[in-house]
Design a protein that fits this description.
Layout lengths: L2 E6 L9 H8 L3 E8 L11 H20 L5 E4 L2 H12 L3 E5 L6 H14 L3 E5 L21 H10 L48 H13 L5 H4 L12 H5 L5 H10 L6 H23 L22 H9 L5 H13 L4 H14 L4 H11 L5 H12 L14 H8 L4 H6 L18 H7 L11 H14 L4
Parallel strand pairs: 1-2, 1-4, 2-3, 4-5
Helix pairs in contact: 5-10, 10-15, 12-13, 13-15, 14-15
């Protein structure tokens, strides 16, 4: 039987794996390979939290493969070089992979496909990550969408979800002499163990993804429409890191949701699938506007007067020491779990970009390093949306008030009390803006900042003044 390399990347699963299934259908013995190649990622090699997740996801995938009779071959270096070496070592006649869509990886993959085919190898790539690939949908003029609603309308008119494919029951082994690096040699896990708290709330790998989906469908789904904006409740699916690493296919999520559809869940299911649409929209934008991880999509903001970052203020924001409880709660949740509730992501991003007037790329970089679900397309879309500089963005003059946002979405202050426990002794009404009751704050939370690092009204006014200078307002 001939050997075919199956190059695992952001598709760390065995169910619904188009490349693996295609290699098996063609009669090949799959050689499962993962190449750690941060040098191939340009300016956006995975951050520390993502690498920590990857360590455990790769271990889980290798365990799955071994249970079926195979194993995961780990290598490190330039993917193009390593794959050529592997082809020579095992005599592979074909290479299969599921596509990636980042600006640095697309040209590399196209070049590799072209060169390997020129050498006589079969090379096949597939969509293993999205409901719609970035180039599938276009406006009537043939261009990319910049507004989500017409993008989603077009997506629904072309809706066709792939059939589910179970994981193989067995797999033939790769060549026994083919060496693999020890996982620890890739240097993915942090030496100091700062990620210890992550694993109290996360289970990387395909089994963890399926369990998270089951828990969501059986629990939070019914209240998703209102619950998804409540950080004090378990109201979301928490599938984002599993989706990022390809531990579950989005169409498997859709199938599970549709199987649960009823009069009581229909609106929630439509709302959740729409969020999967935003994920596809993010990849659509990144594909068509590959400079956006570093540059504003809206050129008007080239004239915007961002403030020079104050190192002390930026560090206070990063560490959850701004003196604004909902902001601090979100950033401490991020630090301890590698994740932050989406509503709170918007609040902390607005605070940085507007109240502090720090360029959105500073926040994007911090999220990139600290989120386990850090995804270049989603991260870019999210930050440019909040900053007002991107596609279909919230207008810059819409400034989130973090106090009223906390009162609305954390009405009992439970989220604040959990992540800023020094404020838990305050009466609920005082947890949102504790600087307004300075004596009680000094008594109950003597180590919490006495005042926010910037006056909220003054920060808002300065942001709007800078916006007007660009010709807005």
């Amino acid at each position: 039987m001939s050997y075919a390399i199956v190059w695992f990347r952001r598709d760390l699963r065995l169910h619904d794996h188009p490349a693996l299934h295609a290699a098996l259908a063609a009669g090949h013995t799959p050689v499962p390979v993962y190449v750690h190649s941060p040098g191939d990622e340009g300016a956006w090699a995975a951050g520390a939290a993502s690498l920590s997740w990857l360590q455990r996801a790769l271990a889980a995938l290798d365990s799955q493969l071994r249970a079926l009779g195979s194993r995961l071959i780990l290598r490190q270096g330039s993917a193009e070089t390593v794959l050529r070496e592997l082809i020579a070592e095992c005599g592979a006649v074909a290479v299969y992979w599921n596509r990636r869509y980042e600006p640095a990886t697309q040209p590399r993959d196209a070049r590799l496909k072209r060169e390997l085919r020129a050498q006589g190898l079969e090379v096949h790539s597939y969509n293993g990550a999205l409901l719609f690939e970035p180039w599938q949908l276009a406006t009537q003029q043939g261009g990319p969408y910049k507004v989500f609603t017409p993008f989603w309308r077009s997506a629904l008119s072309h809706w066709q979800v792939p059939a589910l494919r179970p994981a193989p029951k067995t797999l033939p082994p790769p060549p026994p002499a083919l060496p693999s690096l020890p996982l620890q040699q890739l240097g993915l896990a942090p030496a100091l163990g700062w990620d210890r708290g992550f694993w109290d709330v996360w289970q990387p790998g395909e089994a963890g993804a399926h369990e998270a989906l089951d828990v969501f469908v059986d629990g939070a789904l019914r209240g998703y429409v209102a619950g998804r904006d409540r950080p004090d409740q378990i109201g979301t699916s928490r599938l984002s890191p599993h989706l990022h690493f390809g531990e579950i296919a989005p169409w498997r999520i859709v199938a599970a949701l549709e199987n649960a559809r009823s009069a009581a869940t229909g609106a929630a299911i439509d709302g959740y699938i729409r969020q999967l649409g935003w994920r596809d929209f993010a990849h659509h934008l990144l594909h068509h506007f590959p400079a956006t991880p570093e540059h504003n999509l809206n050129p008007r903001f080239a004239r915007f007067r961002w403030a020079a970052p104050d190192p002390a203020q930026l560090q206070a924001w990063q560490r959850g020491r701004t003196g604004v409880p909902i902001v601090d709660a979100g950033l401490r949740e991020l630090w301890h779990t590698g994740w932050m509730h989406n509503r709170v992501r918007m609040i902390v991003a607005s605070y940085l970009c507007k109240h502090l007037r720090v360029h959105w790329s500073e926040g994007a970089r911090w999220f990139w390093d600290t989120l386990v679900d850090a995804d270049l397309a989603n991260n870019t879309l999210g930050w440019q949306w909040v900053a007002g500089t991107g596609a279909d963005a919230a207008p810059y003059f819409r400034v989130f008030n973090p106090v009223t946002q906390a009162q609305k979405f954390d009405p009992q202050g439970r989220y604040i009390a959990r992540w800023v426990p020094e404020l838990a002794a305050l009466p609920v009404a005082e947890r949102f803006a504790p600087w307004l009751t300075p004596q009680r704050l000094a008594t109950s939370a003597p180590h919490y900042p006495r005042q926010p690092i910037v006056d909220l009204a003054a920060g808002r006014d300065a942001a709007l003044a800078a916006y007007r200078e660009t010709g807005g307002g």
